[in-house]
Write a structure and sequence with these properties.
This protein is α/β, with parallel strands linked by helices. It has helices at 23-27, 44-57, 82-102, 114-122, 124-137, 150-157; strands spanning 8-11, 32-36, 60-65, 107-112, 142-146, 161-165. Strands 1-2-3-4-5-6 form a six-stranded parallel beta sheet. The chain starts with 7 loop residues before the first strand and ends in a 26-residue tail after the last strand.
């Protein structure tokens, strides 16, 4: 097995009149982009612009799928079943894939966002549903999940390529899960 570091960033999170982040500046520094698919952030115009921007920078394009939570930025947990998780994942992958295809690009990976990411890290059924949607859409896609968690295990069980993710700017609990953002010191902001 060859190990490599893929520096990825969540981008394309603007929507409507709301602007967030310096996507162009970030894309000059990363190898992969996790582009918001409209559920936690992003909209059709932003998705289209961000795909084109990522293509210009030669950055791998990934679908950043989330719970339907614009107001909470996808960081609030919601009770969803496996079938719903599968459907919302497939829906968002399809939306971003349409923009990628129209720009002459292809999707490289899928990474859940926020609460969905953390829920799938610990819930094997939810992880299997997300991995199943990725596999159903394109078994060549890479599934990105928290290192050592249920999500990469579920992807590997289906034969997907998986990326085990770690965060340089976050603190962890003793069990390897991320310290919730609302906890003091959860985000490391000292360069």
């Amino acid at each position: 097995m060859t190990l490599r570091i893929d520096l990825n960033s969540d981008i394309g999170e603007s929507f409507g009149a709301w602007r967030m982040g310096d996507d162009a500046g970030v894309l000059a520094q990363v190898s992969s982009a996790n582009i918001a698919c409209g559920f936690h952030a992003g909209d059709a115009d932003t998705m289209q612009r961000t795909v084109a921007l990522a293509a210009r920078h030669g950055v791998a394009i990934g679908a950043h799928v989330a719970l339907p939570d614009l107001q909470g930025f996808g960081r609030r947990e919601m009770q969803i079943g496996a079938a719903e998780a599968h459907a919302l994942t497939l829906y968002q992958i399809g939306a971003l894939a349409a923009f990628a295809r129209a720009a002459g690009q292809v999707l490289h990976h899928v990474k859940p966002h926020g609460a969905l990411y953390n829920m799938a890290a610990r819930d094997a059924d939810l992880a299997a549903a997300i991995a199943g949607a990725v596999h159903a859409f394109d078994p060549a896609l890479v599934l990105v999940g928290l290192a050592g968690s249920a999500l990469p295990r579920a992807g590997a069980a289906l034969g997907l390529k998986v990326a085990h993710e770690a965060f340089a700017d976050r603190r962890y609990r003793a069990d390897g899960t991320l310290l919730p953002r609302r906890a003091a010191g959860a985000v490391i902001d000292d360069v």
